[in-house]
C-alpha cells in the first residue's frame, strides 16, 4: 500500500508600504510559515529594503508561495530574498505521481502614483526533475516604476546535473492605468534547453524587466549593452514601449548578477536616484559595481 505524500507548504506574505512624514518608507504586513519577513533597513534615500526568508530549505512538488505588496504614493521599496531558492525534483520520484508535481510562486504588486518597487530576489536553482511555475502581476499608476529580475540555474551543473525532465515556467503581466504594458511568458524545458533559439545547452538564464515611468532614451540602452564587457555568456538588451528588457544565457549566475546589477545602477542614475547598494543579506563576496564607468 502506498503511503500518502507529505502535505505541501502553502505560505503567504502580504505587505503594505507608505511614505511617512519623515519622507522614509514604512511597512506593515505579515507572513505565514515557512515565509518570514526579516528586519527592514532604511536607506539614506528613504527607500525601505525588506528581505524575505523562506525557512523551508527549498520547494518540493506541490508547495505554493504567494507574495503580495501594495505601495502607497511615492513610496520606495527594495524587496529581496535572504538566500537562493532551491526547487527539488519531483518527476519520477513518486509512484503516485510519476509525472511530478509543480511548485508555484505567485507574485502580485500594486503601485500607486509615483511609487518605486525593485524586486530583486537571489537566484533560483532547479534540481533535475524540478517543476516550478512563477506568475507575476504588476499594476502601475501614474509615474510608478517597477524593476524586476530573475536568475535561474537549471540543474546543479557543478555536479554535471541537468534539468532532465524538469521545467521552469514564468509569466509576467504588467498593466499601467489598467492597460497592458508587458506580457512576457517563458517556458524552459525539453528541446527549448538545447535549441539555439532557447538556451543552446547553457544552464543559466536571466531576465530583467524595467517598467519605466517615462520613455527610455537610446543612450541608456547603449550604456547597458556596454556593461556586458568582460562578462561570460550571451546578453541582449532592448526597448519596451515604456521601459527595457535584458536577457542573459550562459554558464555563470555571477555574470548574470553582475550585468543586472550594473543595469540597476544605470537605471538609478537615469532617474536621478541614489546609486544602489548591494542588499545587506546578500552573501556575495563580489563587487559588481567596483570600477564601473561613470553614469
Rg measurement, Å:
19 Å
Mean of the pLDDT scores?
92
Tell me the β content: 35-45%
Largest sheet: 11 strands, mixed
Structural class computed from helices and strand pairing: mainly beta
Terminus-to-terminus distance: 65 Å
**Number of DSSP helices?**
3
- Quick one: overall form? globular
Q: How many distinct folded domains?
A: 1
The total of beta strands comes to: 18
Helix content: 10-25%
* SSE series: EEEEEEEEEEEEEEEHEHEEH
Regions with pLDDT < 50 over 5+ consecutive residues?
none
Could you give the topology of this structure?
Blueprint: E1 10-19, E2 25-31, E3 35-37, E4 41-42, E5 48-54, E6 64-71, E7 76-81, E8 85-87, E9 103-111, E10 116-119, E11 124-126, E12 131-140, E13 145-154, E14 167-176, E15 179-188, H1 191-194, E16 204-211, H2 218-226, E17 234-240, E18 243-250, H3 253-270
Parallel strand pairs: 1-6, 5-7, 6-9, 7-10, 8-11, 9-12, 10-13, 11-13, 12-14
Antiparallel strand pairs: 1-2, 3-5, 4-5, 13-16, 14-15, 16-18, 17-18
